[in-house]
């Protein structure tokens, strides 16, 4: 079961999760970094935040059983996550280029935490399956962690590593900067709207 959790995450990381996370993370990567090392670090911080939350959800799935479904779909969790994502959109649009170094480096981790807090349908399905397997809380947390690491093992790291170099070629154009901010903020706001309206689950 343990390795199958990683493989399940890996399959999603190559497909659905990679597409979803790329749309959300690539604008931030281009905005915050100038080297491929910085791009990879951003992806790793995002993945660490998401894997941490999925590990906690894995423990809850084992402890609560199928009741974890009600927790994952609780309106207050979706509401709080939607507001957090909307706030990130405002930050990305207005302050991402001028905020402090610590805030810039820590934001991908926070972003991963928020993303993990409102799992997509595929991740919810994995957690519900985990809830039926029994075992201890530590066992559930380990499976949740490995699933999260599996989703992070897709092509996202490579894409984030290449993004800063690609962006440097366009960085001298003011129109490109404005377009990046507009596109990035639009993605954040659209994601927040989907969460708040229940269209994400």
SSE layout:
Blueprint: H1 2-14, H2 16-32, H3 36-64, H4 68-72, H5 75-94, H6 101-117, H7 121-131, H8 137-151, H9 156-168, H10 174-197
Helix pairs in contact: 1-8, 2-3, 2-9, 2-10, 3-6, 3-7, 3-8, 3-9, 5-6, 5-10
Describe the protein in words:
It is globular, with a radius of gyration of 17 Å. The chain is an all-alpha fold and 201 residues long. The protein has one domain. The longest helix has 29 residues, at 36-64. It is built from 10 helices and no strands.
Q: How many structural domains in the coordinates?
A: 1
Give the C-alpha Rg. 17 Å
Q: Give unreliable regions as ranges.
A: 98-103
β-strand number: 0
Strand proportion, as a percent range, falls in: under 5%
SSE succession:
HHHHHHHHHH
Q: Give helix % range.
A: over 70%
Taking all residues together, what is the mean pLDDT? 73
What would you call the shape?
Answer: globular
The largest β sheet comes out as: none
Contiguous helical run count: 10
Report, as a whole number of angstroms, the end-to-end distance.
25 Å
Q: Which structural class do the helices and strands define?
A: mainly alpha
Question: Can you summarize this structure?
Answer:
With 201 residues, this protein is an all-alpha fold. The protein contains ten helices and no strands. Helix content is 82%, strand content 0%.
Overview features:
10 helices, mainly alpha, 201 residues, globular
């Amino acid at each position: 079961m343990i390795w199958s959790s990683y493989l399940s995450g890996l399959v999603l990381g190559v497909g659905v999760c990679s597409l979803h996370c790329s749309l959300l993370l690539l604008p931030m990567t281009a905005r915050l970094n100038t080297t491929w090392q910085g791009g990879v670090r951003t992806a790793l911080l995002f993945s660490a935040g998401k894997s941490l939350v999925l590990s906690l959800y894995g423990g809850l799935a084992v402890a609560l059983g199928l009741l974890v479904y009600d927790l994952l779909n609780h309106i207050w969790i979706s509401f709080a996550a939607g507001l957090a994502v909307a706030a990130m959109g405002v930050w990305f649009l207005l302050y991402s280029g001028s905020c402090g170094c610590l805030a810039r480096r820590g934001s991908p981790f926070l972003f991963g935490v928020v993303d993990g807090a409102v799992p997509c349908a595929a991740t919810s399905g994995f957690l519900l399956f985990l809830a039926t397997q029994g075992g201890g809380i530590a066992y559930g947390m380990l499976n949740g962690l490995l699933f999260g690491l599996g989703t992070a093992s897709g092509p996202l790291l490579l894409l984030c590593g290449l993004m800063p170099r690609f962006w440097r070629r366009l960085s001298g154009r003011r129109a490109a900067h404005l377009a990046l901010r507009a596109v990035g903020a639009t993605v954040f706001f659209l994601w927040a709207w989907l969460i708040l309206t229940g269209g994400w689950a």
